[in-house]
Amino acid sequence: MEVNRLKPFIAPIFGAILSLPILFLLAYALLEGVSLEAFSNLNLATYAKSTLLLVLGVGALVFVFGGLSAYLVARFEFVGSRFFSLSLALPLAIPSYVVGYAYNGIFEYAGLLAQLTGITGHFSILTLWGAIVIFGLSMYPYVFIVARAAFLGLSSSVDEVVKLQGIGPVRAFFRAYLPLVYPALFIGLFLTSMEVISDYGTVLYFGVETFSVGIFKQWFGYADLQGAIKIALVLMVFVFTLLLLESKAKARMRYATGGFSAKPLQKQRLKGLKALGAFAFCALLFTCAFVVPVAVLGYWAILDPRSGSLDLGGYTFGTLSINLGSAFVIMVCAFVVLFFTVAYRTALAKIAYRVSLLGYSIPGAVVGIGALLLFSSIDKALGQYWLGGTFFVLIFAYVVRFYPAGVGALNSGFSKITTELQEASKLYAKGEFARMWRVSFPMVKGAFMSGFLIVFIDVSKELPATLLLRPFNFDTLATRIYELASNEMLPALGLPSLVLISMTTVAVLLLNLRIFR
Amino acid sequence: MKSVKYLASALLVGASALMAAGEVNLYSHRHYDTDRELYKTFETQTGIKVNVVHAKAEELLARLKIEGDNSPADVFITSDVGNLYDAKAAGVLQSVSSKTLNEIIPEHLRDTDGQWYGLTKRARVIMYNKEKVDPATLSTFEALGDANFPYKIAMRTSANAYNKSLIGAMIAHHGEAGALAWAKGVVANMARAPKGNDRDQIRAAASGEADVAVANTYYVGRFVTSSDPADREVAQKVGIFFPNQNDRGTHVNISGAGVTKSAKNKENAMKLLEFLVSPEAQKNFAHANFEYPVNSAVEISPVVKAWGTFKEDTLPLSAVGENGVKSVKIAQEAQWK
Questions:
Q1: Which of A115, A139, B49, B250 has the lowest CB atom count within 10 Å?
Q2: Can you state the percent helix, strand and coil of chain B, rounding each to 5?
């Protein structure tokens, strides 16, 4: 009986646990004393402007890159269209900061471009615009993947309408197709924005002063934790606004998908210039976003195989074990919490759900420090050093940070479980556990797998929290790449980057196959 | 095999943490492969296992502060005296004294209370584009802030620890007003808004985007010996100029270490520090990373020797560290990004 009464609170309690690191940060700031006038000295306008420009710029780029390429491969047949359906998702496997290092290696003074062409100048890509292009190239797959699924889901009736109206392909795209897949595109844009906002490595390297950089600068550079937390608070307001917009888009998508029919459309065969144009666009995008960075890394790996290969096996093993483990933990949490959120739709559960999604927008290092504060307090209360510096703390931080990604993926599975189905399942399986395992899980298995892969990819690329929380003598490929980059040994990071990319590429391919099936 | 070894060592670490004997735990901001080799040498010589967590100095310091007496760390190793000073100010280090350390490390490169010790020296200098700049026209750090300074400067952000310490040294020599006027002058003479790391500043000077760059010398050592032809070309284009040779000497920073207040393996920690200033370890530091050894008995690397000898500023580094907060204020007031 006691346990039964707790059930409606399982989801809210979990949401509360996930927000603990942030609450601890706030408490810590309050304990050290808060002065309100300090808000004016925080350069907030600069951070807001850079972040907004970055989000808008990257948004526009990924909209064009991801949206257009998804439209082309989903609706048309041309040389390579099948290949591009799969391969255009691959850049998701490369961390943005690695793409940034690689491109700077090309364009920097006496860099690869200068070596190949003999032209030397001082054209630098380390600007806001450079960062926008790098993010655009490395993040458009977020849009591509969801948009392609949406374009594939459009029914043939849309095309019939287009044909009847006799409108051209360009107008048809904007007037007929785009409005229908717009919600899906928006969700892709939302994911991209979250990634851009929480990024630290790339923006720092490119000298773009986003909120994330501001938090670090205030905290570590100026030793002003209260100031840093204030910037983080402003950032969270920013993100909450985006979250609201996203939930509206989701509601619209449900409405839009209502019109999809079971009879999908035959792909249209492109000929002549149109086929060439479609091929050129996809090929150029794939080359810039994937082939070029990988080629640069390959070149570096050949230049400097010695320091790059040092204990590579150990780093790979460390990366794989922690990433698979935490992805599994995150998905199990997401599954259990969603199950109870769906089963007991209380207002509290809804609030907890929204709050627990915040982690995605908070820079990894902020989550890291929050987790550190939380578990150190527990350790202090216990009078023992039990939790600090263990894998438990690291995995907890990953859960806080990437749980939203897992939930996002799993949610699409749970949206299929209607209230009627729930009621019916109560007859079929007795007890929550049985219903969870025998009814719900089989229904969301596919979404669970997608979520697992997405979280695995995200965790593989994570950097600041891992740096901050990892136990003694524990390194991952990402931390190793960071070390080599911060020692300014770019060629040496070729080999470990390639290993990391191979690992995440497998996950991206599996994800792509899953979603596109 | 590697992974089996890795798993085994992970288990060992877990087991030995319970016994807390025969080991020493480091929080280190230095993460060069050569440092790892040094620790291995120490392990084989003494049988003391070295456990390391690598991260940025500021993050490790935050971790030390938060963990307090519970921290498993015995030694905090980092670059830049500002970080060491901050650690002392935060009360996470303890005073230790050792005849070996005091004999080998010059007085101005260690804390007056024995809370931190310099392990290597890092000279912060002016690097110039050989085609555009006549080194005879360069003189002092002060000149960089001169309204008549004929060159454009590339320099990192003021949040960077090396620049914070450089401003700290300027405050020590010229007072706050003098340092502020200088910082404003430097900002006015900048070729571009500060961005990137030391390596990028040197590149900016090599490419001609700037005429001169302010950076630490060992980066040039890495350019010279790099496997990347692009790096080697940069090294050829820039010259190294040691400023303030006719007065107090060139500003020198350190990477250094302190024993933490919470150290449970203090004895081993002291052994490690003493090992790190031994000729063997110092030679490794100096030759692998092109830094200057604190142990005067050790020769500098041939690459570094080629830049010539110089007179160094012997202003006690604790005085530089003390000025950290003032440096930040001055940089903000001077609108040094």
A1: A115
A2: 50, 15, 35
B-chain CB neighbours of A373 within 8 Å are 66
Task: Report the C-alpha gap between A207 and A101 in whole angstroms.
Answer: 13
> How far does A203 lie from chain B, in Å, by closest CA?
10
The model's confidence at residue A1, banded by pLDDT at 50, 70 and 90, is very low
With CA atoms as reference, the chain A residue closest to B160 would be A221
**What would the two tokens of residue B93 be?**
């280090």
Number of H helices, E strands in chain B: 15, 9
Interface contact B53, partner A, CB < 8 A: yes
- Residue B204 contacts A where some CB pair is shorter than 8 Å: yes
Q: Is A391 exposed, middle or buried (0-12, 13-18, 19+ CB in 10 A)?
A: middle
For A42, the closest chain B residue by CA position comes to B332
- DSSP result, B46-91: H-PEEEEEE--HHHHHHHHHHHGGG---SEEEEESHHHHHHHHHTT
Put simply, the answer to whether B7 touches A317 (Cβ < 8 Å) is yes
How crowded is residue A109: how many other Cβ atoms within 10 Å of its Cβ? 23
φ/ψ of A201, rounded to 5, equals -55, -50
Is B208's CB within 8 Å of A223's CB?
no
From CA A84, how far away is CA A90, in angstroms rounded? 10
Residues 149-188 of B with CB under 8 A from A: 159-160, 164
- Residue recorded with tokens 């044909």: A163
Nearest to B51 among A217, A464, A472 (CB): A472
Query: What are the two backbone dihedrals, phi and then psi, of residue B59, each rounded to the nearest 5 degrees?
Result: -70, -40
pLDDT tier at B19 (50, 70, 90 boundaries)? very low
Q: Is A24 exposed, middle or buried (0-12, 13-18, 19+ CB in 10 A)?
A: buried
Outline where A118-222 has alpha helix (H): 128-153, 156-165, 169-172, 178-198, 201-206, 211-216
**CB contact B8 to A (< 8 Å):** no
The answer to whether the pTM exceeds 0.90 is no
For residue A302, the chain B residue with the least C-alpha distance is B227
| pLDDT tens per residue, range B97-130 | 999 999 999 999 999 999 999 999 999 999 999 9
Tell whether the torsion through CA atoms of B162, B167, B170 and B171 is positive or negative: negative
Q: What is the pLDDT of residue B102?
A: 97
Query: How much of chain A is helix, strand and coil, in % rounded to 5?
Result: 80, 0, 15
More confident residue, B144 or A229: B144
Integer Cα distance of A448 and A454 in angstroms: 10
A388:B9 CB<8 A: no
Query: How far apart are the CA of B5 and the nearest CA of chain A, in angstroms?
Result: 8
Contact A303 B208 (CB under 8 A): no
The residue in chain A having the minimum alpha-carbon distance to the alpha carbon of residue B210 is A122
Cα–Cα distance between B279 and A189 in angstroms, integer? 57
Query: What is the nearest CA distance from B247 to chain A, expressed in angstroms?
Result: 31
What are A194's two structure tokens? 């979250």
* B25 Cβ under 8 Å from any chain A Cβ: yes
Residues of B in contact with A375 (CB under 8 A): none
Interface check for B328 against chain A (CB to CB < 8 A): the answer is yes
